[in-house]
Amino acid sequence: MGMTMTQKILAAHAGLESVKAGQLINCKLDIVHGNDVTTPVAINEFNKAGFTKVFDKSKITMIMDHFTPNKDIKSAANSKQCREFASKYDIDYYYDVGEMGIEHALLPEKGIVGAGDCIIGADSHTCTYGALGAFSTGVGSTDMAAGMATGMAWFKVPSAIKFNLTGKLNKYVMGKDVILHIIGMIGVDGALYKSMEFVGDGLKNLSMDDRLSMANMAIEAGAKNGIFAVDDVTIAYMKDRCKRPYTIYEADPDAEYEAVYDIDLSTIKPTVAFPHLPENTRTIDEVGEVKIDQSVIGSCTNGRLEDMAMAAEILKGKHVHKDVRCIIIPATQQIYLDCIKLGYMETFIKAGCAVSTPTCGPCLGGHMGILAAGEKAIATTNRNFVGRMGHPDSEVYLSSPAVAAASAITGKISSPEEVM
Amino acid sequence: MKASGYVHKYGDNVDTDVIIPARYLNSPDAKELAQHCMEDIDKDFVKNVKQGDIIVAAENFGCGSSREHAPISIKASGVSCVIASTFARIFYRNAINVGLPILECKEASQKIEKGDKVEIDFDTGTITNVTKGETYQAEPFPEFIQNIINKGGLLNSIK
Lengths: 420, 159
Fold this sequence. Notes:
By secondary structure, chain A is α/β, with parallel strands linked by helices. Chain A has helices at 5-14, 39-48, 73-88, 103-109, 141-150, 175-186, 208-216, 232-239, 299-302, 305-315, 333-341, 344-350, 401-410, 416-419; strands at 24-28, 31-35, 60-63, 93-95, 118-122, 135-138, 152-156, 160-166, 195-199, 225-228, 259-264, 271-273, 281-283, 294-297, 325-328, 354-355, 376-379, 395-398.
């Protein structure tokens, strides 16, 4: 029996000829990652267990992005603890305020992750790097601590679901709409413990930014990882970035899949996930009248340059509705700079948007745009659970940057075509 | 090892944001986290929970964020075991790694009700519903994972 793409990467990192679904294996890690919320717990566990060295200082990454620039004294203490640990162990890839970006935008941008890697991160959206053809999955802080000490992690080899993509997205339809459509179709546990493998002719029509936002939300279907076949688009992205050699793995022709879905990208419409689960999706024509108080455009799902470009195209020469706060957060310093150079920043500010330095901020209800009881937000983020962006009686609707920008203008959830 | 306590019952897709909201993640302290456990799904949980109590839920318990603060807060609130039909995979790993006992058992998840008194024998995986006079059998852990549990968590197992 052949192996899936994920199984091949896992077998290679376990030093095995082949693996099969359900097998428990130990794998060598290429990157062990954490942020300012999860790393302090990992450091405490690392110290408590009595470890005094890290396995490889060039394979550990720490990014201060959740509650930064620090929102209060306790989060400042957490960042300080990470900073001191990174300094003590001379960690190569420690990113703090001024250099940092949102972790899952920054690591691919800097070329620290690449095709064929085996990566764990103490953040559930670590699955984002599957867009590059890596095996990458979220874990907790104790797994991060063990990974920092030993460079190893155990995994149960996952089975897989294949998504065969064809065709091309229509104007104002983005990768985000595709992944929301898929989660709506299979549910928030539709891929529980499994891989989601994305292949097919349609891949060539999906940019890296589209793929990164799709792989990012694999966890929202319960998946262990999401992974894209590597093609010319991936290779072009990695060419001048990747700091280490990358390896391209392909699924065997006879690899086994638990299910195969064929998706024609040209049939996908702008899609919105209603509260309080990412699976509660409706296409834009079925949304009805939903007035909003806030629009958030950013996050590890949709804070990349193409997301900013789409928001700028829609907001150019227009103004945010008087009852709406529109908050735009470019995900990295490079994206922020590109937004300035390309004139997007002027567009945003003239339209009445607040623009922030990179931070996860409002996505998880940390800071920079918390909702009061009864308020509604449209957001390009990844979760709309109860209380996710603030008060437990507030509501989050998930969408693409195109829909979030259009909605900021009209004051209600709207199709981009309504304002263009 | 055995556990015994009264049941707090929840449904499908209990996510880690409602188990421990992000507004409290600025502290890694277990006792502090326990003061806000389940706050956004059951504001009376902290007031009502007693040492040894058991959480019973349905599908995909612990979905969402990888925050280990979630099983840490449940454990520190005194809960002796979480029983669910299925667990989200990161929560499953985290619970084992931090030593919060969990059991997968669809029948128990369906039949046990809020307030029932339940006893658990972890050696056999037998769940006894004292209130209803029923027993249910949980899925056994693979040997590899049982070994981590026996050694008292992941870090003890690799030291």
